[in-house]
Amino acid sequence: MAIVIDPASQSSDDDARSNTSSELTELDPGDFPQYFRENLGRLFHSHGQSPYPLPVDAAEQHRLNRQHALLQSLIRGLFVGPVNQALSGINGRKNAVDLCTGTGKWVMDMALMFPHVKFHGLDIVPIQTRHPLPNVYFVIHDVAAGLDYTSGTVDLVHARDISYAVRNYHQLLCEVMRVLRPGGLFVAGEWAPYPSMGNIYNIRDYAPRTWEYFDLLRMVLSNREISTVPTMIRPWMEQLGFVNIEVREYRLPVNGRHATSFTRRTNANLQVYVESLQPMMADAGYGSRARSLANLMFGEISRVDGIFFTYYAIHGARRARA
């Protein structure tokens, strides 16, 4: 099911922001050698095993926080699926885990909404708030190494935009299935690898440089053993025995000739994202080409109507006991 956002119906920047503070995390000097490294003027994680290619500095944290607000507008909330049911307090304290939590905005907002739930946000770098809510726990952990929870003890596992951080999503799903309680819920969200113009127009014809940029990006990611996986998540979940699986597609429009405040925000965040990708492109030997294509792409985006990015929201449950 494709859901098309109506930009005119969206709230302003202030209305769409997270309920929690938008301040960035102030890093302790002692954190740098253990968790961070510098490359081409940007700050990256220093975890040797993680494939995650994007920076983790202030500019990227701002982008992640703005994306959090954009996604709230896009899916009209913090989640898609029967999360209220999964986190119902009828049977006592609940446990929820957010994989690759980033700045922790989703966890903090959810913790306000569900104060009876214990939330764990996992990430490989400490860029979350140093003042979490009483029911929030941020943990430095690489999810690719498995989930350090007893089998059958977690009510909700949330994984939003994590495909860059895991090389084996199927293996991670096995771990998710293991830690979920019977009836527990898995909620995921991933972006399609290419922008689109729907079934009527071919983006390769109307915005060829835009398509070429993302084709280059996909090749560079593939060379780093990073795959974009949204269309594979459902069949993998079916294979592992998840039930009540649902996939929804949401369309996030970009500027075109008739820009709105919402599409301008989308476009601004896209520009920061492309800039964050530039060190990876340069390391792969495509820095100049990527920069040139990006400039041409943003020219196309400003002239061509109907370009959008597709966000896949997927959820499914571990089968409940009979």
Question: What key attributes describe this structure?
Answer:
21% strand, 322 residues, Rossmann fold, alpha/beta, eight-stranded mixed sheet, two-stranded antiparallel sheet
At the first level of CATH, the class is: Alpha Beta
Biggest sheet statistics: 8 strands, mixed
What's the total helix number?
Answer: 11
Count of domains: 1
> What is the name of the CATH superfamily?
Vaccinia Virus protein VP39
End-to-end span in angstroms?
30 Å
**Low-confidence stretches at least 5 residues in length (pLDDT < 50)?**
1-27
Largest sheet strand order: 1-9-10-8-7-4-5-6
β-sheet strand percentage? 15-25%
Number of E strands? 10
Q: Can you tell me the CATH topology?
A: Rossmann fold
What percent of residues adopt helix (DSSP H or I)?
25-40%
Q: Can you tell me the overall shape?
A: globular
SS-based structural class?
A: alpha/beta
Walkthrough of the structure:
Residues 1-29 are annotated as: Disordered. Pfam families: Methyltransf_25. This is Methyltransferase domain-containing protein. InterPro entries: Methyltransf_25, SAM-dependent_MTases_sf. GO terms for molecular function: methyltransferase activity. This protein is α/β, with parallel strands linked by helices and 322 residues long. The chain has one domain: 3-Layer(aba) Sandwich (Rossmann fold), CATH 3.40.50.150. Helices cover 38% and strands 21% of the residues. It is built from eleven helices and ten strands. The protein has helices at residues 13-16, 31-35, 58-75, 83-86, 105-113, 169-179, 203-206, 208-223, 230-240, 261-283, 287-303, and strands spanning 2-4, 36-39, 42-45, 94-99, 117-123, 136-140, 154-160, 180-191, 243-253, 308-317. The strands form two sheets. Strands 1-9-10-8-7-4-5-6 form an eight-stranded mixed beta sheet, sandwiched between helices. A two-stranded antiparallel ribbon has the order 2-3. Helix 6 (169-179) links the parallel strand 7 and strand 8 (180-191). Helix 3 packs across helix 10 and helix 10 runs antiparallel to helix 11. It is globular, with a radius of gyration of 19 Å. The two termini are 30 Å apart. The model is unreliable at 1-27 (pLDDT under 50).
